[in-house]
Amino acid sequence: MNFIGQTKSFPGPYGNLGPKHGYSNNVLQNYHLSVIKLNSESSQIYFDYFYHQENLRLPIIYEKNVQKNESHNLSFNLENDLSEIHIKTNLDFQIGDLAINDHNINYYTFWSDISTTRILNQHISVKIENKHKRNYFELESNTFLRNTQNNFGLNLCYKKSKNELEYGIIVLNKDIFNFFNYKYKKDDIEIKFYHKPKSFFNMKDPFQDSISFSSNLINFNGINFNLKKSYGEFNFLVNFNYLQYSLNQKFKYLRSSYQLAHGKYKINLISLNSIQNIVSQNFYNLKLNFTPRVYDKRFDFIENIPLIGLLFWNPKKRYKPFIDIDLSYFDWIESGFNDIGNYKLDKLNEPQIYWNYKFGFTIDNFHFSWNHKYLSNSYLYFSNVDSNDIPIHPVGSMSYIQIDWRFND
Fold first, then answer.
1. 10-15 — which CB contacts under 8 Å span 24+ positions?
2. Which residues does 282 contact at the CB level (< 8 Å), separation at least 6?
């Protein structure tokens, strides 16, 4: 059994993103309970419950932006491994209530994913998979909306030595598509080519006067390259991901990541850039993580001083302090890397540079941190409405306290 909790509080007049009257201290809460039951060597049962609550007043576009959401999420997973057949069943449920601006939406979503894999020989297997998703939305005006998605897939898998190939057909709501994945791995290098169609159905433009929904089917093509190397105490990771998809036109992006770690220091550089798109889009992020620990017996006399004593650490102490520094540059918002299928091309009037920092300590299964941000590390949506009465989010400070804890049994 594994139980994880997380809360966020936004103190102070400038960091407070809580309700308008400030009656709630913890405006974002997440709790996750996971239970694994091993019936035998060939059978496993997983049960997960996730609770999410947020009560935020977000002054991003309109002054009236208010969002309150509470959801309960259940997941049941059963896996059976027979001699030549692997069966996997996954059932997910989500029940929630969303209050956004002047709208109250009750929703219910059900997912099912059932797959059967038949091993033909040492290298070849056949997989049959059926995915089902059903959404129910009930608006305050008693308007009832329902959407159903049925995906059926049949694919052939081939594995030999350093090569893995998966090819098949997938039926998305009665439309037939083909897909494939090819992966080559040798020592520290991994290369992957893929073509994958994906369908979306979600609410769009939630801050408008009316509620509407989008339904998209998009084909993704990509190439991934990963390199992992170690030189003594230095660990080096490189990742390149080329992504292409078509909506009304073709969009191409290159995401690259570089990470260097040594002992208690780690530095990571990420870039995301458009390639020959109509709108030039660039995003860069540099992150430094280190543990400010000083171990010297000469400083034992101050190790128990509050805050300052955290820096003078020795192996007998249970806690470990940390500091994260984050620097970002971007000139675009929401470029298409959104899992809910929202693909917008909104260019900022001028590029933005912002930085964040975070510090705190961990002790056993407890993680405490103070976060200070300028804007956010996610891609905020800025208004593209030409009106002087609609302000965009000011570039100011945003601070909050975050607590993460874990219970294992």
1. 10/398, 10/399, 10/400, 11/399, 11/400, 11/401, 12/399, 14/396, 14/397, 14/398, 14/399, 15/397, 15/398, 15/399, 15/400
2. 271, 272, 273, 274, 329, 330, 331, 332, 351
Count of CB atoms situated within 10 Å of the CB of 295: 12
Measured between alpha carbons, how far is 269 from 17 in angstroms, rounded to an integer?
29
Helix (H) or strand (E) holding 403: strand 397-408
What percentage of the chain carries pLDDT values higher than 90?
26
User: Which is more confident, 22 or 29?
Assistant: 29
What are the structural domains of the chain? 1-58 (no CATH), 59-408 (2.40.170.20)
Q: Strand 124-139 vs strand 397-408: parallel, antiparallel, or unpaired?
A: unpaired
Token output for 155:
């694919």
How far is the C-alpha of 89 from the C-alpha of 84, rounded, in Å? 17
pLDDT score for 233: 85
Q: Judge contact between 115 and 107, C-beta under 8 A.
A: no
For residue 124, the 8-state DSSP code is: E
186: tokens are: 């040798």
Contact 223, 242 (CB under 8 A): yes
Tally of helices (H runs) and strands (E runs) in the chain: 1, 20
Mean pLDDT of the 221-230 span: 94
Q: Per residue in 350-376, pLDDT tens?
A: 677 778 888 887 877 777 888 776 654
pLDDT-derived band of residue 383, with 50, 70 and 90 as boundaries?
very low
Task: Dump pLDDT digits (tens) for 298-350.
Answer: 766 666 666 666 666 566 667 777 889 988 887 765 544 554 445 555 666 66
pTM of the model: 0.72
